[in-house]
Amino acid sequence: MKKRIILSIFLATLFCFALRNEALAIGMITEPIVLENMLRGGESTQIVTVFNPESSEATYLLGTEGQIKGWVQFFEKGKPDSPVVKVMVPPKSYYDAVAKIKVPQGTPNGAYTGEIFVKQNPSEQAKNSESAVVVAQMVSREVEITVTDKEIIKLGTTVIPESYDVKIGEPLKIKVIYENFGNIALKPNFQLKILNAADEKTVLNAIYPYPDNEPAVGPGERKIMPAYEWLTAGQLSGKYLVEAVSLVGSEKVNRNNFRFNLSSASVQNGKILGTFVSMIGGGNAKAGWAVVTGIIILAAILSGYFIFKKKRNISSPRGIFTTQDKMNF
Description:
By secondary structure, the chain is an alpha+beta fold. It is 25% helix and 41% strand.
């Protein structure tokens, strides 16, 4: 019995030593992926981030386990038509792979669990190993999927203007971010209404269709759209109100409002100068102008002093040559 215990300890120590020396490190963001109310045939795209802490390039295998095995395909970022099963990660670098999760048709309603894993390439590791014991490290990320047959439309919209202060002649640029919290892919249209705040007169009321060349916003996806622009040439200066509405079909699903100021270039330059002066005064415009005035007065005094001194040197006897001096010279 005692010999067996000693032998077990020896083998465990040997295994740990081999593991420490032969198993390469691997990193992965392991926050669980939770997808609720997915439809049969529905898809969701997730990012799988891998980190290679080694000093040389490493190859990692991508795969799935559990009830979701076979539901996931992996792609390189920007190449949605070329599935991959392994990725090569440069040394000391992160790598983002795209995991497309699709619920098979005919899947009953219910909850399903599994894992997305990243594993070292055993063949590559065995080739570089001098030991008979090769341990391929694997890191996994939990996946929980709830399947339903009820369609859910739930869209979040964030509207962000590039600037709240726009010069006349320059476009108002608006960035729109969609977040799909439902279970079907959406292609929302964007309605933009702009009113002059002074008289509430509408200067623009347009609906921008979802771009044909843009993929739909999939369930669970966050998508930044190309910026929408409104040309301001010919508009009056002043404050304007923007009403932005996201439309799914004819249904208004989100509304966002903001105000911005439209001004001429001269007014903009005056504001910049005023801000600079206020900064000089520690946030106090009056103190800033007092400092600026003092600097101007001091500069005028110094300038006058140097001009006076220069004229005095020129008119000095030491600076004037007489006819006799020229002859002696």
